[in-house]
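Field log, afternoon session.

UNIT: design team B
ACTIVITY: writing a sequence onto a fixed backbone
BACKBONE:
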């Protein structure tokens, strides 16, 4: 079976640190160490006295307790700490599904799970968010995609790349489909809390159904991607099965990541980090929207509910990968091609960034568009 590479991450791994302007990331502008320490005065001595040893393989107890508080009804025993959400997704699929099993996947989506399913030899049924209906879930297509053989339904909520938050009715439809056939739900919720217009966090799938794996991380909603720390929350026995895979391929996250993430997710610091994230999102989106409105014949977009990314349809006569490659090579700006979500003539652009970084980058996109028009 031919290996399916993760095309989006292939490009980002090679070029995101080489360009002048990186608008490909889906989180907000990250914190400096100094800025982070300001959120919890007096903790520097604790950090300095930390023994740089192995942490608990499943995550230090205090960290797992803080994560559990984010999910109604969860305890620390329901939590496994992983190397980012990407490891949580990977090991969850490998723990629950065997080659030949059937999986239903929401599209468009961050195509990690789709690619893992391809490489695992799974049968993939797809259901879509409908662009013409404001990226609402196509419930009829969902119901057709979930069959008696379906072992897992994979969703991303809030969604990457559209920023759409599923309504309660849409979430109930996913749960109803899963419960009818006894399938699992894997809910990638890394953008939960990173809302653009609401101050409340959107609800998690966790606690709505007994066979849910909720995935999170410190990267997107908290501005701490460099910790490389994520988690999966689910039934205790299943989390232990995923831990068995975790012990094979990474063993543990780092001790310093555990210590810093425990601080970040503590009840007094976590709300402040979410407020910071929402501030970047709410300041950055009007800048992007103004720029897009200056090109009314080129771009269309449904404003995202959450996350620091906008998924924009364009009307230029150029393939999305070709456009992104020219932008990168000629203007030193990196964005994400719609091809990486299986949707040509779209681009995904970050906007959770400082104004003095965004505007010059958008001006360079203008330069390429003008050259293409000529």
């Amino acid at each position: 079976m031919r290996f399916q590479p993760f095309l989006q991450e292939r490009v980002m791994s090679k070029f995101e640190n080489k360009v002048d302007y990186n608008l490909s990331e889906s989180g907000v502008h990250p914190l400096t160490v100094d800025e982070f320490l300001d959120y919890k005065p007096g903790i520097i001595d604790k950090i300095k006295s930390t023994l740089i040893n192995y942490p608990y393989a499943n995550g230090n107890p205090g960290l797992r307790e803080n994560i559990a508080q984010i999910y109604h009804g969860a305890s620390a025993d329901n939590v496994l700490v992983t190397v980012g959400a990407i490891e949580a997704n990977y090991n969850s699929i490998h723990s629950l599904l065997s080659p030949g099993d059937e999986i239903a996947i929401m599209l468009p989506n961050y195509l990690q799970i789709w690619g893992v399913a391809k490489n695992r030899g799974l049968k993939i049924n797809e259901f879509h968010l409908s662009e013409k209906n404001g990226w609402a879930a196509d419930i009829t297509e969902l119901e057709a995609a979930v069959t008696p053989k379906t072992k897992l339904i994979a969703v991303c909520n809030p969604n990457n790349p559209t920023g759409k938050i599923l309504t309660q009715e849409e979430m109930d439809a996913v749960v109803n489909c899963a419960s009818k056939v006894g399938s699992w739900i894997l809910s990638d919720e890394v953008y939960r809390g990173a809302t653009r217009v609401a101050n409340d966090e959107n609800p998690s799938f966790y606690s709505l159904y007994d066979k849910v794996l909720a995935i999170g991380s410190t990267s997107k909603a908290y501005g701490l991607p460099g910790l490389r720390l994520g988690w999966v929350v689910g039934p205790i026995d299943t989390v232990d099965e995923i831990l068995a895979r975790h012990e094979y391929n990474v063993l543990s996250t780092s001790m310093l990541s555990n210590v810093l993430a425990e601080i970040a997710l503590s009840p007094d610091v976590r709300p402040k980090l979410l407020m910071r994230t929402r501030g970047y999102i709410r300041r950055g989106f009007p800048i992007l929207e103004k720029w897009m409105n200056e090109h009314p014949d080129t771009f269309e977009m449904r404003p995202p509910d959450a996350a620091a990314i906008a998924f924009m349809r364009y009307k230029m006569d150029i393939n999305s990968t070709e456009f992104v490659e020219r932008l990168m090579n000629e203007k030193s700006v990196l964005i994400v091609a719609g091809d990486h979500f299986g949707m040509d003539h779209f681009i995904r652009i970050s906007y959770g960034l400082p104004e003095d970084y965004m505007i010059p980058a958008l001006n360079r996109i203008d330069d390429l568009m003008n050259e293409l028009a000529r």
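LOG NOTE: Residues 338 and 347 are 5 Å apart (CA to CA).
NEXT ACTIVITY: expression trials, pending approval
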